[in-house]
Amino acid sequence: MGARKKISADKRKEALKSMYFAKLQNVPTSPRKMRLVADMVRGMEVNRALGVLKFSSKEASARVEKLLRSAIANWEQKNERKAENGELFITKIFVDGGATLKRMRPAPQGRGYRIRKRSNHVTLFVDTKSTNDKN
Asked: 117, 129, 128, 125: which is closest to 15 by C-alpha?
């Protein structure tokens, strides 16, 4: 690794130490379906978001709920205290496409239709409201 690239990587790692996030990778759901759930909770207070996810009928909401609980636990671990009610908010949540498994389905007259089994990666950031005002 070159010196310039190493310095840039070190800065990025240092910045991540002050952020509170959780990642969920290789979820076997299409990114489009996962984005519907991510859009429901973007910018919400975490307790309200947990309620929305708990009672959502979407299959992906259970995974995002578990991810949000993990992000809250990460915040509590780094700050060495429990999160108070109404203190934490979802600052960023985004869904990226993951690996796509390509399969073939038999079709009439000797042809084959391609099936794409998509996956995604979800990243969720939480932080306090006072920290958000500075940015």
From this structure: 125
pTM: 0.87
**Domains located in the chain, CATH noted:** 21-134 (3.90.470.10)
pLDDT digits (tens, 9 = 90+) for 67-104: 999 999 999 999 989 988 889 999 999 999 999 999 99
- Name 92's bridge partners: 125
SS3 28: coil
Q: Residue 133's pLDDT is what?
A: 57
Provide CB contacts within 8 A for 2, sequence distance 6+.
Answer: none
Beta-strand ranges (E) seen in the chain are 20-27, 88-97, 101-106, 112-117, 120-128
Determine what percent of the chain falls in helix, strand and coil, rounding each to the nearest 5.
Answer: 45, 30, 25
What are the tokens at 115? 């099936």
Report yes or no: 20 and 126 within 8 Å, Cβ to Cβ.
yes
Residue 25 dihedral angles phi and psi, to the nearest 5° = -115, 150
